[in-house]
Amino acid sequence: MRISELVDKNVAIWGLGREGNAVLEYLQKHNITPNIRIFENDNEVNLDGVEIVIKSPGVSLYKPEIIAAKKQGVKFTSSSDLFLSEMRARNTKCKVIGVSGSKGKSTSVSAMAHMMSAAGLKVGLGGNIGRPIIELLDGDYDYVVGEFSSYQAADLTASPQIVMFTNLFYVHTDWHNHSHEQYCKDKLHLVANQQAGDVYFANARNEQLVQYSNEYPHNRQLYDVADGFHAEGRELYYRQEKLFSIGDLKLSGDHNLDNLAGVFSVLKYLGFDIKAAVEALKSFEPLEHRLQNFAQYQGIKFINDSISTAPEAAIGAMKSFDENIVIISGGQDLAQNYQSYAEYIENNPKVKMVVAMYQSGPKIAEQIRTLVQRNDFKLLETNDLELAVSQAMETLQNLGKGGIVLFSPTAPSFGVYKNFMERGEHFMSVVKNLLAKAA
What CA–CA distances, in Å, run from 223 to 1, 97, 260? Predict the structure, then answer.
């Protein structure tokens, strides 16, 4: 939807979080419409007389009241949709690169923007990663790199010119009408409105992503393939040429190489000097709450991976280390399947203990008890994070070889914390307090 379509209409903003506030500020700054109704939460919503609703990402488009309102002719849009519609219509110089997927989005967009900026280009970075993307609408950029969640992609009427998908895992089914299939379709809707000459890149090694992207075959290019950029072990290749090893970077986690195969596919498509981009990548700093090594004590490293919201993310995190591991997992129960998580732990003798927490804790513990039969393995169920950390430390100390306390929740934080950042900060605070007592 174009912003001009809001003029002289009865407009409401549903949800006054970061995006809602950013939309309100933009409309007020440009004097778009004088009569804007604000619904800060669902309990305040009254759509009588409303013609257009700008909803926040957290408001599911499958809510019965939204379905009913649409039947009555009420139109719905979002800050992401307003941004993309405007950029496509009025700014032909600036290209929008959208990145989505179940995991790896934030690191991918940040690394991409870092390498583009190093090449001397004006790059805007926003979306789900932090800065509301509508704030970039009036900027003078060569490229805008945006992270788009499934919530933001589900009902777009315009698509970025260039899109990269990292993967598809089993997450967020509550918002998406309690359907994993709907979640996948909503995620891929990011490219539903691409035009002739647009392009999107999909990870060939992620079976679900390949399957669901078959609905949009015309603009698709696959990466992580032998004749393009692909990860092999701890190294990234372009065809037969080795570009770098994960050990050359400040990033941790071999799984990041799959995401970087997509990032470099985008950069090559745009004509970037790949060797120069590789050199720039070596100065890229990892993001907070993503395999963040923030403390050490007597050979034990404490890793904050609070961004982990799927079992597959935790498996990738565990694969990043070749030391004894205690993993702390659990969060909001979104019907995730923990069989592969438990199977990996059974087959990896380095994982000495699992602490299962919060709403999904019982499901994690059940799978662990069923599948993990190693005699040297421990399972703890608790909702006390301080107890979880202290028991993790004690387990590793008793082994006498140091190791890793890995906080990788495998699930969203809602119900306990506002977001993964607050969750990660709490974990780091608990660790630092315990270490101060131990000193």
Answer: 32, 16, 10
Average pLDDT over residues 246-267: 92
The rounded distance, in Å, linking the Cα atoms of 144 and 113 is: 8
Asked if residue 99 and residue 60 are part of one domain, the reply reads no
Cα distances (angstroms) measured from residue 360 to each of 60, 316, 378, 389, 410: 22, 19, 18, 18, 9
How much is the pLDDT for 334? 81
Nearest-angstrom CA–CA distance, 55 and 37? 12
390 Cα distance to chain centroid: 29
* pLDDT tens sequence across 368-414: 999 999 999 999 999 999 999 999 999 999 998 899 999 999 998 87
From 62, 77, 92, give the residue that closes a domain.
77
pLDDT digits (tens, 9 = 90+) for 107-135: 999 999 999 999 999 999 999 887 899 99
Q: pLDDT at position 310, please? A: 87
Inside any domain, residue 193: yes
Q: Residue 70 belongs to what H/E stretch? A: helix 64-71
How many angstroms separate the CA atoms of 357 and 296, rounded? 23
Q: Is residue 3 part of a domain?
A: no
Asked whether the beta carbons of 417 and 426 are under 8 A apart, the reply is yes
**Positions of E strands within 101-154:** 123-127, 143-147
Domain identity same for 110 and 205: yes
What is the b/e burial string over 147-174, where b = at least 16 CB atoms within 10 angstroms of the residue's CB? bbbbbbbbbbebbbbbbbbbbbbbbbbb
pTM of structure: 0.84
Domain range for 143 is 80-281
Same domain, 149 and 272: yes
Question: Structural domain tally of the chain?
Answer: 3
Within 8 A by CB and 6+ apart from 127, the residues are 80, 98, 109, 133, 146, 147, 148, 152
Is the pLDDT at 285 greater than 80? The verdict is: yes
Concatenating the DSSP letter of every residue in 266-300 gives HHHHTT--HHHHHHHHTTPPPPTTSSEEEEEETTE
Taking only the tens place, the pLDDT of each residue in 184-198 is 999 999 999 999 999
Question: Beta partners for 55?
Answer: 14
